[in-house]
Amino acid sequence: MVEFTGWFFVLLLNFLILMYVLNILLYKPILNILHEREQVKLDTLNEAKALTVKKDAAIESLKKDLSFAHDLAKKEFSKLKEEGLIKQKEIIGKAQEEANKRFSAAAKEIASEVGKVKSTLMTEINTYAEVIIDKLVYEHRK
Q1: CA-based angle 105:108:110, to the nearest 5?
Q2: Which residues of 31-66 are buried (b: 16+ CB within 10 A; e: fewer)?
Q3: pLDDT above 90 as % of the chain
């Protein structure tokens, strides 16, 4: 059987004091370190989740901005294309007018030259006709 002598109570008291001292010096700091570590881990996970949400929001915003810019670029391209077609039509119209003017001037110049050539030819024909008639009449008189 267990005897409860004076040393038992001394050893029991010594054990309880040792447990109290170890609890203060060893167990509580280790438990605090483990608790702080767990808290840092949870804070880091929460921060990572917040950053992921922020990243997703930024990506969505970027997609919207990109879509808006793409639509704006299409509109600007269409506008510039229409302006280019209008300018092209103006240039072609001016070129056609210039070509018509030059053609008309060339036709007038050709008609004028044809008139000159006709009058020159008529003069030469009349001269040759007179020469031929003179030769025929002169030959006939001989």
Answers
A1: 110
A2: eeeeeeeeeeeeeeeeeeeeeeeeeeeeeeeeeeee
A3: 75
CB burial readout 84-107, b (16+ within 10 A) else e? eeeeeeeeeeeeeeeeeeeeeeee
Place of tokens 């040792």: 18
Mean pLDDT of the chain: 91
CA distance from start to end of the chain:
192
Give DSSP secondary structure letters for 86-138: HHHHHHHHHHHHHHHHHHHHHHHHHHHHHHHHHHHHHHHHHHHHHHHHHHHHH
Alpha carbon distance 37, 29 (integer Å): 12
Tell me the residue type at 61: S
Q: Find where tokens 């000159």 sit.
A: 116
Provide the Cα torsion 101, 105, 106, 107; round to 10°.
100
Q: How do residues 102-119 score in pLDDT, each as one tens digit?
A: 999 999 999 999 999 999
